[in-house]
């Protein structure tokens, strides 16, 4: 899994620069009780038609358990969010960000998880709409230490909710953020001076705090919806599960009038141990509710062994089901990868080895998957 390649001294590395020039942070673990805002949609003006709408007042938060939410599909609004033919892109830029409001910050991992991951709900007032699979930029407060007098650099985070947000009203977005901390390799102690500025700002935020956001950005991980019976194979390490949470809520939790999913969604999630699982109760619930349309496989590197007796990483789990995965890809399935970039070499090596065992050229197969737009990768 990706974390193994980073070395023990860094619990969550500082975000590297992505292909579009922004710094990218870690993206979001599911918890059994997420906070939802119980507020109606106000007015009919589409969010991207006007940047003047104000975020709602934060009133009493309604706690709706995953079990309650999934008994029947939940109505979403405004349905006008389905009307756009193209995804919204870069509505707010780094020089003119949108000031949003923190709704809630919840720790998602258990006590035995290495590091801390938080689920952060942000109220954008309907002014920064997005599609599933896109990212927000976050500008943490303070000066850029490398450019005194300038603001901090934008960090990108994959959005972990559908376009309707956790409140189902199109006014919030959720992020899945791992707190980035640095441990001195000699002393073994945490060095606060090298902690991740943005991830710590977000994880330390309180309801009502303001946050500067940009975007949305990204088209690589958009969920193709032209065929509602398609197969989607989703592979994640850690917070890379964020976009898939959005996909799966759209497929199985929300009553979306224009999208009735009847295909197969298959999630592979690699984390360190059971306490590190993200959104596990939510995903397990889909498994119970939609056994014919959802599969869920976990790779727990510190608790499970692969067939060779080594640690179980997500690529080992993929190899277990390689014949089935290849047949699905041959049938047109989409495959997605999201997480730390260190995950990809091991996965690519596994897929290449499997292809050769099947008498196929992996390079040719990969080229065809890309040509057919079946191959979706977002690593950071």
UniProtKB/TrEMBL annotation:
Main subcellular location: plastid
Binding residue positions for NADP(+): 158, 178, 239, 301-302, 311, 339-340, 378
Domain FAD-binding FR-type span(s) in chain numbering: 95-223
Example of a GO cellular component annotation carried by this entry: chloroplast thylakoid membrane protein complex
UniProt subcellular location: Plastid, Chloroplast
Lineage per the UniProt record: Eukaryota, Viridiplantae, Streptophyta, Embryophyta, Tracheophyta
Pathway: Energy metabolism; photosynthesis
Protein name as annotated: Ferredoxin--NADP reductase, chloroplastic
GO biological process assignments: photosynthesis
Species this chain originates from: Eragrostis curvula (weeping love grass)
Recorded GO MF terms: ferredoxin-NADP+ reductase activity
Keywords associated with the record: Chloroplast, Electron transport, FAD, Flavoprotein, NADP, Oxidoreductase, Photosynthesis, Plastid, Transit peptide, Transport
